[in-house]
Amino acid sequence: MLTLGDGSQTLLTHGPWIAFVFVLGACVGSFINVVNWRLPQGMSLSQPPSRCPICGGRLRFFRENLPILGWILLRGKCRYCRAPISPVYPIVELAVALAFVALYLCLFMSTPSQTWWWEVGGRWWTTQQFPLGWPAYVLLAFLFAGLFSMTVIDARTFMIPLVIPVFITCVAVVLWFVQALIARHSGPAGLGWPIPATGWGGTGAAIGGMLGIGVAAVLQGIGILRPSFFDYEQYVAEGDVLAEYPHARREMGIELLYLTPVVVGIVVGWLVLNGVDGVPPRWLQAVGGSLLGYLVGGGIVWSVRILGTLAFGREAMGLGDVHLLAAVGAVFGWFLPIIIFFVAPFFGLAWTVLAALGRRLRGGVRRELPYGPHLAAATVLIFLGRPVLMDAWRVLMPTVEMPVGGLVDAVDNSDHWTDALKPVSMLPDATWIPQ
Questions:
Q1: Is 270 left (phi over 0), alpha (psi -120 to 50) or beta?
Q2: At what angle do helices 282-312 and 248-273 cross, to 10 degrees?
Q3: Rounded CA gap, 264 and 148, in Å?
Q4: Under 8 Å between Cβ of 169 and 326
Q5: Fewer Cβ in 10 A, N or C end of the chain?
């Protein structure tokens, strides 16, 4: 039981950071409101500045546009024309702020006695605390905020703006690099890193795959490769879905050509670096784990997209779904996206059943939902349900060790793909310098 002194110490230790992440979450929620409104309309996120959609009056940040408080101070009406302002805006800002706080509590304030939340986070987070673990925390917070935004936009428009998952991916690579430089020793082996890192083989495959993406993008940019579905507007009327496009199988050939440099890069990168002695520098393991997660997450969805389209003659999954799970992989590493992909269909099935029941009870047209929201929901479930996943893995595959987060200590000859079966803590001693 906490004494008064313990409570005061906890408040002094965590109170300022909780206040900070609440404010950060409110600001991110305000930005999400902008993203959800402007991106589907093809508008710039920065120009014009925030303004009333009725009278065009500009909203100043420290007055009308202040997250949560601005709506309250204005009493839900525009300062200039008195038009009502939707309460959705402060609700989103408050919800995201509370979600950021909940994530902080889960990761940095759970204890071994709180078995469930301790296993969701773990010793690494409580050892780092926010001053040393902020890059990883900010990354997770941005991911969940991005998933919320992509879910809302995809549900409304059946389209995921690629700028959102691409931004998350870039942030993931940068912040995992920063996190690798500042994290401290975090305990016994197996608790030394939040996501599976990579040995030389996996690092080479990740770097080679990303170089392959760059080559494919250049080939497309100079006109040697054309974008897939480039002529869909000639066949699909406005308001129809892309699945009605009649030449979907043909376009999969174009996408296979685009992916060829990526596959070649993965294989060549693995072959070139797999035989290197020792282990990569720890910052490179962290970045390699993120990049490999990106390739695995995007690759599994893109493979199903191609195979499903070839089988049924209609676009099976959108490229937005590819980028969504790729971004999830960049944050969580290569293992969780695989589990997420196989859990997401159950959300799709549940939605289909609920939508059918709703239509029968209330009448009307059944509300369709694209696949992106199911992937997002599965991501949140797998993150929060990690203890169940670990228990299920032990029951279903007792002889196979579940891939966990960790840095590579020594190359395991039985698995050169990730070489992440022997994790070590971040800092072997106080004098460690990035290699």
A1: alpha
A2: 150
A3: 34
A4: yes
A5: N
DSSP category for residue 233: G
As given in the structure block, the two tokens for residue 95 are 């919800």
For 139, the token pair is 């990354």
Which residue's structure tokens are 């009278």?
55
* Cβ count within 10 A of residue 292: 30
d(CA 352, CA 346): 10
The half-sphere exposure of 54 on its side-chain side, counting CA atoms within 13 A, is 10
Q: Is 412 left (phi over 0), alpha (psi -120 to 50) or beta?
A: beta
Radius of gyration for the chain, computed over Cα atoms and rounded to the nearest angstrom: 23
What separation in angstroms does the CA of 223 have from each of 2, 58, 407? 66, 43, 41
CA-based nearest residue to 115, from 125, 106, 124: 106
DSSP string covering 380-412: HHHHHTHHHHHHHHHHH-TTSPPP--BEESS--
Give the C-alpha separation, 419 to 411, whole Å. Answer: 6
User: Helix 319-332 to helix 372-384 angle, to the nearest 10 degrees?
Assistant: 20
Alpha helices in 233-334 (DSSP H): 248-273, 282-312, 319-332
Q: Distance between CA atoms of 244 and 232, rounded to whole angstroms?
A: 9
Q: Using a CB cutoff of 8 Å and minimum separation of 24, what contacts does 302-306 make?
A: 302/255, 302/259, 304/341, 305/255, 306/252, 306/255, 306/256
If one counts every other C-beta atom within 10 angstroms of the C-beta of residue 38, the result is 15
Distance CA 183, CA 125 (A): 10
How confident is the model at residue 51, as a pLDDT?
Answer: 78
Look up the pTM and report it.
0.88
User: Given the structure tokens 């702020």, which residue do they identify?
Assistant: 97
The CA-based diameter of the chain, rounded to the nearest angstrom, is: 71
Contact by Cβ (8 Å): 410, 425: no
Distances (CA, A) of 90 to 31, 67, 141, 351, 382: 11, 7, 19, 28, 28
Tell me the average confidence (pLDDT) per consecutive run of 10 residues in the chain, 435 residues long: 58 91 97 94 84 76 82 85 89 98 93 78 86 96 98 93 97 96 64 83 97 97 90 66 74 95 98 90 93 98 95 88 98 96 94 84 72 96 91 87 70 35 34 31
pLDDT of residue 186: 55
